[in-house]
Design goal:
Number of strands: 16
Low-confidence stretches: 166-178
Strand order of the largest sheet: 1-4-5-6-7-8-9-10
């Protein structure tokens, strides 16, 4: 398996803001992490700097939202005084918990034994005694020190663990280096993929798109192009239809941003270049005839020039049918419950629950859970199905009361 060199943007999380190198401050931590994720970063290192426990709790919540926004791994550290802090980082969605070399090594060993050493890393500015780190139970070392001395360089070459280094041009081609640690403002995030492409031309193994089909493998229409159906990679909503020529295809694969050929203007256009409504590639699929591409993308803003999310917003006809999509059913019921809370209706059972308060809602959730247990003792499943549906309704009332969305639940499950 190829040991890719990784681009890992990092920042300090302080008072709800991202502090980068040179005291550059980004107010939108979640947007910054999403930009890193969409533009080719392989991982994000977030180092928390909280003044007290109250600030720490807020930082963990923000970390969780950042982990949901990014679909690449997040490593987190900086505020670890006990096992509870390790658990908070992991439960917030961090794939790796990063200890500093001033942390309790006993705590690090205990965390590695409990959660697995693959989830533990160490951040240090001194690798002179680096060979002892493996015994602590860490999978990686984030080295933040100065690498100019020849002795340091030799140590890094012999180091048994993958390393993450600060930006040092002379060290790019060291075989055991797993990545480069960079501090990147959000407006420069788009350059991350370009950086990787540059490294690839230098023979450095990096994780870039490697298409299974070349342009020659595709069947073109009479204009020498291939139609592209564009779909939201999360909701699976069909967003638009466009066309690619060879140059558009190659640029899409290289940049990770959807690029098309405009048949009316007779020119290439990178989606979002003027509007900011970029489409970041998550997956490209080819149909059975090799003549149509399905692009699953992360859509920023609206896909349609009219401002609609999807270009397919005009209804020609529609047959009445019962919705069977589970996600849409859950969303519809949730939205109805939420609307009842905002706009109460006389005689509504949902409003009765909201009126009685959280204790009544919790009581009903508990009662319905018990009903599931009792119903499931019967050999037939029908009664259990009914009770589970009843439970889910009351659970959604609780979710609305606590301002928890289905996205929150799905993101939590996805991070486990």
């Amino acid at each position: 398996m190829t040991e890719y060199k990784k681009i890992i943007p990092h920042f300090i999380l302080r008072e709800g803001k991202a502090v980068l190198a040179g005291d550059i401050v980004c107010e939108d931590v979640i947007g910054l992490c999403r930009a890193y994720s969409d533009n080719g970063a392989d991982e994000i290192l977030i180092w928390e700097d909280s003044a007290d426990e109250q600030a720490h709790e807020k930082a963990v919540i923000l970390l969780k939202r950042a982990a949901c926004a990014a679909d690449i791994p997040i490593a987190a550290g900086g505020h670890i005084s006990g096992m509870d802090d390790v658990k908070k980082y992991l439960y917030a969605g961090a794939r790796t918990v990063v200890f500093s070399d001033s942390s309790s090594m006993d705590l690090l060993k205990e965390a590695a034994e409990r959660f697995g050493k693959e989830k533990m890393a160490l951040c240090t500015g001194d690798i002179s005694d680096g060979f002892g780190y493996a015994a602590l139970g860490v999978s990686r070392v984030f080295y933040m020190g100065d690498c100019e001395e020849k002795e340091d360089i030799d140590n890094i070459k012999a180091f048994p663990l993958p390393l993450i280094l600060d930006w040092q041009d002379p060290l790019i081609d060291i075989p055991t280096v797993a990545g480069m640690l960079m501090s990147v403002p959000v407006e420069e995030a788009a350059s991350l993929m370009e950086e990787k492409l540059m490294w690839k031309t230098m023979g450095i193994p990096v994780n870039v798109y490697e298409p299974a089909f070349t342009w020659d493998d595709l069947k073109k229409n009479s204009d020498g192009m291939v139609p592209v159906i564009v779909q939201d990679y999360i909701t699976e909503e069909v967003l638009m239809l466009a066309y690619m020529n060879e140059e558009a295809y190659e640029r899409t694969v290289r940049s990770g941003k959807m690029t098309y050929f405009s048949r009316s203007r007779k020119e290439l256009w990178e989606k979002g270049a003027t509007s900011g409504h970029y489409q970041y590639v998550k997956e490209l699929r080819l149909d059975c005839d090799n003549d149509t591409i399905l692009a699953r993308v992360s859509q920023i803003g609206a896909a349609c020039h009219t401002g609609n999310r999807s270009c397919f917003y005009q209804e020609i006809l529609k047959k009445d049918y019962e919705e069977k999509n589970p996600l849409k059913i859950f969303d519809r019921i949730y939205d109805t419950i939420q609307d009842r809370k905002i706009h109460p209706r006389e005689g509504s059972y949902t409003n009765y629950l909201f009126g009685k308060g959280i204790d009544k809602i919790l009581k009903k959730v508990g009662e319905e859970a018990t009903e599931i247990v009792i119903a499931s003792k019967n050999p037939e499943a029908e009664e259990a199905v009914y009770e589970i549906a009843d439970f889910l309704y009351h659970l959604m009332v609780l979710m609305v009361e606590k301002e928890i969305s289905w996205d929150d639940i799905v993101n939590e499950l996805a991070n486990r």
